[in-house]
Design brief:
single chain, alpha/beta, Multidrug-efflux Transporter Regulator, Chain: A, Domain 2, D-Maltodextrin-Binding Protein, domain 2, 3 domains, seven-stranded mixed β-sheet, three-stranded parallel β-sheet, globular
Length: 311
C-alpha cells in the first residue's frame, strides 16, 4: 500500500476512480491540495479526504466529465453513467471520442443501490449493479424490480467479478469465509451502505442470523475497494469484503475468493432508442472494447453486452 502521506497522482486517481489527468485538473483548479517533492506532485490522504468532503457538500455540478464520488444531485447535467468500476471509465472515454454525440457522458462514482435509486428518480440515465439477493441466490434482477417498480428496464451484462475477503498477507488469523465474521477476535472494515459488497455481506449476515452491530469494525465505512484493502494492508482491520482486482493493487494483502458476481448495466427501456444508448451498446459489443479487458486480472468479459434480464 502506498504511503498515505505521499500519494502519487496515480494513487489518487485509483482512490477516486478517476483518470490520472483529472487529478492534475483538480490541482490546476485548486480543488485538491498537494505538495511538491522536487518537481513531482505528492498528496496526503488528508488532501483526498478533504476533497471528497468538500464535494459531498458542494452545490450542483457543472458539465465536466467526472462527478464527485458522493455528490448529492445529478439533475440537469447531461447523460450520466453510475458505477465505480474502471470498465465504465474506458466506456466513457470511448464515448467521448464519438463525433456524433452532442456531449460526452458524465460519470457518477456511486454504489449499486444509490445508482439504481438515482435511475428511478430520473437523476441518472444508466446505472450499474452487482447486488446479491440472499433468498433467491440471484444477482441484480430482484433489486431492479424492487428499486424501480413499474419501470420497464433492460439489464446488460458487463463482466463477471470475484468477491471475497481481504486479509493480511499470509492470512495469520486463519480466516476462511463468512462464518469468521462471528469470531470475537477479529476486526473488520466495511463498505458504505448501498455498495454491492456491503449488500453481499449484509445478506450473508442475515442468513446466518448475525447482527452487524455485534462485529467489531462494522460501523467503519470506506467508499471503495481500494480503501478497504488499504485498511487491511495497514493492519487497521483484519478483514474486509471486496473484489479480487483491488487486492492485487495493495501491498500486504491476500485475497480469499468466496463468490462470483455478475456486474451489469441497467437502462430504462424507454431510453434504448437514444443515440448515446445505441452508441454504448455498440461499443460494449465491439471487439476493440473487449480486447482492452481480455487479459486484465479479475475480469471475465466473455458475455459483455448481452441482454441478461428484463423487468
Amino acid at each position: 500500500m502506498p504511503n498515505k502521506d505521499a500519494l502519487t497522482a496515480q494513487d489518487v486517481a485509483l482512490l477516486l476512480k478517476i483518470a490520472k489527468n483529472t487529478v492534475y485538473e483538480l490541482v490546476k483548479r485548486k480543488e485538491l491540495g498537494y505538495y511538491k517533492v522536487g518537481r513531482k506532485l505528492r498528496f496526503s490522504m488528508a488532501d483526498v479526504e478533504k476533497y471528497i468532503e468538500l464535494r459531498r457538500s458542494s452545490s450542483p455540478i457543472d458539465h465536466r466529465n467526472d462527478i464527485s464520488p458522493v455528490h448529492a444531485s445529478f439533475k440537469g447535467s447531461g447523460f450520466i453513467i453510475c458505477g465505480q468500476d474502471s470498465i465504465l471509465d474506458v466506456l466513457a472515454a470511448n464515448l467521448a471520442g464519438n463525433q456524433h454525440l452532442d456531449r460526452p457522458p458524465l460519470r457518477a462514482y456511486v454504489g449499486s443501490y444509490r445508482g439504481l435509486t438515482a435511475l428511478y428518480q430520473g437523476e441518472v440515465h444508466a446505472a450499474t449493479s452487482h447486488l446479491w439477493d440472499g433468498d433467491s441466490g440471484k444477482y441484480n434482477v430482484p433489486f431492479v424490480r424492487r428499486l424501480l417498480p413499474g419501470i420497464p428496464c433492460a439489464i446488460f451484462h458487463l463482466t463477471l467479478r470475484t468477491q471475497g475477503l481481504y486479509v493480511a498477507q499470509g492470512n495469520p488469523k486463519g480466516i476462511k469465509g463468512w462464518e469468521d465474521f462471528n469470531r470475537p477476535d477479529l476486526v473488520m472494515v466495511n463498505r458504505e451502505k448501498g455498495a454491492g459488497s456491503r449488500v453481499l455481506l449484509d445478506e450473508h449476515l442475515r442468513l446466518m442470523n448475525l447482527p452487524g452491530g455485534n462485529i467489531k469494525g462494522y460501523a467503519r465505512e470506506e467508499l471503495n475497494h481500494l480503501s478497504v484493502a488499504g485498511a487491511v494492508g495497514r493492519k487497521e482491520a483484519d478483514m474486509g469484503v471486496g473484489d479480487m482486482k483491488a487486492a492485487s493493487q495493495v501491498e500486504g494483502v491476500d485475497f480469499i475468493p468466496l463468490q462470483q458476481e455478475e456486474y451489469v448495466l441497467v437502462l430504462k427501456k424507454e431510453d434504448l432508442s437514444l443515440q448515446i444508448v445505441q452508441a454504448i451498446l455498440e461499443i460494449l459489443n465491439s471487439k476493440d472494447f473487449m480486447e482492452q479487458f481480455r487479459h486484465m486480472k479479475g475480469y471475465d468479459i466473455s458475455s459483455i453486452g448481452k441482454l441478461v434480464g428484463e423487468t
